[in-house]
Amino acid sequence: MDELGKVHQLIIPLLGHDMTFNLDVILMTWVVIAVLIVFGFFASRKKSLLPGPLQVLGELFVSQLYDLTEDAMDKERAEKYGPMICALFMFLLLSNWIGMFPHLHEPTKDLNTPLSLGIMGFVIAHYAGIKTKGFKKYAKEYCEPVFFMMPLNVIGELAKIVSISFRLFGNIMGGSIIILVVSYLTYSVIFPPFLNAFFGLFVGAIQAFVFTMLTVVYISVQVK
Amino acid sequence: MDFDIQTWVSVAAFMGGGLSMGLGAMGAAIGEGYTAAKANAVMLRNPEMGGDIFKTMLVGQAIAESASIFALVVAIILLFTHFESGSLLTISALLGAGLSMGFSAIGSGVGSGFPSAEACEGIARQPETIRNVTNVMLIGQAVTQTPATLGLLISCILIFKEFPATDSVVSAAALLGSGLCMGLGAIGPGIGEGLASSGGVKWVARNQTYTANITRLMLIGMAVAESTAIYSLVVALLLIFVV
């Protein structure tokens, strides 16, 4: 139980401020990125009409997520944002699943990862909105229905970042805490595999999909 | 009965943890039960789709449970963290954190059950709409959880912010009040957003040609229903950082 809440940190003083690096999270993020790059390399190495197993998996990811993006936006925008959505989903899925392996932790368990991905989605959505509608029309939407509602509209937009990132963080963190506590109470007999299957595989996949869907929806709401 | 301040901090942490999980367990259970009841009822309408209805019910319930999982996270943090520097402010902040998360999980838990119930019914009515219905259900449930995540945010701020070691009763009351404000303010929006998204899911299942339009209207409606939770968030933040 002592593992709970312990974080390995590297603190570098810089110009009077302390820069804090959560080493575990950075390492695990790089593990996820490396696995995805290797997967991408092998999936696309021998492309053929009769696909190998890795190519099938890669095509499944790309085509499904591309369709999803196209349903929410139009064809032109789907070509632009589809690759990012696909990459986001694959990164989140592997991030949520990696905690099932011993000695590895989910990078999404640390609030920094979901929060930065949420801010990324927010910035992209608003950039797309300003680009399609022009700044004047974009700014005008904040003053609806009356002008003095603007601060609340802005906070409402910022609350989207909070909700999207805290949802992922809370679920993954909660799952790993439940697995840790129950494993401790039952001396790791019988229960951990089932808990890992539910909170790791099932909830992890759903939350990765929900995060990706919401990013798509936020972009599509801004551009329409 | 002479306690030092450190004992009171532990008392507040344990009470906050109990309040968080105890209150947080209420809503999600009701929502999940509602989904299960609807799934049972519609199983008879279309027994061939039984497997899909079962899967949709499980996915919906798993998401509806998020609010309770947030409450569990806050409860475990409160139970197992050692709070070293203690003052009157820490005590009320820890109590407030439990209240904020516990109450805010009620609304979102109940609300998240409605869209998944409608999704089960929609799949039984028109099996070919399953893909759109599931997508809209996932979006709706996820957005329904926004009030609970705002409660989690306020709880995290109250737990991890360092407060000055004063014994001002007024500041302590402000921290307790911010927890109550966010918690109570999130009950209504959670249920309301659940109603909005259940309407969206219901009508996507009837006419999936207009999925994009319905989704957009649903999201706008939910954003408006959520605005009262945003008011609570603003007041809670004001109580923590300004008062």
Instruction: Give the tally of structural domains of chain A.
Output: 1
Total number of helices of chain B:
9
Number of E strands of chain A:
2
- CATH fold group of chain B: Four Helix Bundle (Hemerythrin (Met), subunit A)
How much of the sequence of chain B is in beta strands? under 5%
Q: How much is the radius of gyration of chain B in Å?
A: 20 Å
Family (chain B): Belongs to the ATPase C chain family.
GO cellular component, one term (chain B): proton-transporting two-sector ATPase complex, proton-transporting domain
Membrane topology (chain B): Multi-pass membrane protein
Pfam family, one (chain B): ATP-synt_C
Describe this protein's structure.
The complex is a heterodimer of chains A (224) and B (243). Chain A is mainly α and 224 residues long. Chain A has one domain (9-223). Chain A is built from 7 helices and 2 strands, in the order E-E-H-H-H-H-H-H-H. A two-stranded antiparallel ribbon of chain A has the order 1-2. Chain B is mostly helical. Chain B has a single domain (5-241), classed as lithium bound rotor ring of v- atpase (Four Helix Bundle (Hemerythrin (Met), subunit A), Up-down Bundle), CATH 1.20.120.610. In chain B, 84% of the residues lie in helices and 0% in strands. Chain B has 9 helices and no strands. Classes of the chains: A mainly alpha (224), B mainly alpha (243). Chains A and B meet through helix 2, helix 6 and helix 7 of A and helix 2, helix 3, helix 5, helix 6 and helix 9 of B.
